[in-house]
Amino acid sequence: MPRRVTIHVRNPATGEVLATYEEMSATVARQVVDDVAVAARTAWGRSSLETRRDRLLALADELTSHRELAAVRMALEMGKPFAQGRREIEKCVWVCRHFASVAQRVIEPRAVPTDAAKSYVVSRPLGVVLGVMAWDFPFWQVFRFLVPALLAGNGVVLKHARSVTGCALEIEEIVRAAGFPENLMRVVLVDDCDVESLIAHDAIGVVTVTGSAEAGRAVAAAAGRHIKKSVLELGGSDPYIILADADVEHAARVCAASRLDNTGQSRIAAKRFLVVRDVEEAFLEHFVTRMEAATIGDPLRGDPDLGPMARRDLRDRLHEQVVQSVEQGAEIVTGGRRLTGPGAFYPPTVLTGVTAGMPAADEELFGPVAAVQTVSDQRCAIEVANASRFGLGAAVFTRDLERGERIARDELDAGCCFVNAAVKADPRLPFGGIKHSGYGRELGDEGVREFVNTKTVWIDGSLVRA
Fold this sequence. Notes:
Blueprint lengths: L5 E5 L6 E6 L3 H19 L4 H17 L1 H12 L3 H26 L2 E2 L6 E8 L2 E5 L7 H12 L3 E5 L5 H13 L7 E3 L7 H5 L4 E7 L2 H13 L3 E5 L4 E5 L5 H13 L9 E7 L3 H14 L18 H16 L3 E4 L14 E4 L6 H4 L6 E7 L2 H9 L6 E5 L3 H11 L4 E4 L18 E2 L4 H6 L2 E8 L7
Parallel strand pairs: 5-6, 5-8, 6-7, 8-9, 10-11, 10-15, 11-14, 13-14, 15-16
Antiparallel strand pairs: 1-2, 3-4, 4-18, 9-17, 12-13
Helix pairs in contact: 2-4, 3-4, 3-6, 4-5, 9-10
């Protein structure tokens, strides 16, 4: 008989075990998928658009009532400061209400004039969507795909990161409490190595992943073997370009806030700062001041800007990247040391003199470390920005809005490009990347259409009865 594995969820601020859970067997996990498939095919897939819209609004209300408890759970399980956790839930509420408001436009049949008597395109559910999610935004990353998938008429199976198992189970309970059909959304507690057996299940129509490039590669390969669609939102090393005509104080404020959000553990955080030499000194003065002013502490006390990183091994890996970059010529302006004590804390860190070949330039820094690279001009900045295997987000800072728009639109290789603002996900707009940052889109109309069978219906009227 296979050995049952116990999942230990730890508080990254103290190292203490918060809870333990028993991993599911492969047989139990497959039964969960069977149950979700039945709920999707019978009770939900045939439901009216009005019913789906009403359930999404009820889900928004249920989330609102759980906002405090969910923020506490995120603080305990992955170290997110409480105020940031509240904002994460508010954003989940927004995504529910947004898709409820656009449901008819996105889902209803679309007539297409042809030489048929009648022809149109209709969206039909694919069955069950399998979501394989990371820990950094335990609620938002789930609701980002969950809501469009449910709106499209699908069921959902969630395989969340083990370290946020409590968050995963709370999401399942919130969906149930909002009045969705029993078993329409379920959590499976399985190891990463068991994901392919879930993908192989006949009921799974599409798999969506938020995680590292390595995780995305493994899931995409498995999906390909079983001829299943996949949507990948993977890592990023977002470049923020500060041109010579930028408002450097504004740029520094936005850049620091983006770099430190979620204790720097965000795929769309600013990570590489490409500063034109003419404004390097002025930018660094403002930027370093803001990085050093950030407060660090217990995520449930005193509203710190940064909590602990989600795990000690992640903190140690980040420090190793800093050390290797310094050994290759980068300089530490501030931070750059592991903080003593039981928690996985790491200070806001600024590296200058960063060049290609260093971990700080070539790899994703998933924590509060900023890599500053000096460039000679706009052309060089764009070349360095694009010389990355990642392509999730990018930003450019300039007082010339026409130039900034042109750079964002035509010259930066990324899925989300912003001018004079931090990259962010907005339910009204498609979100996703290119290159090793993945493919497919979440959010926006495109995010719903990833989870449907876009079906063509053609009716020949030549044989109409007399």
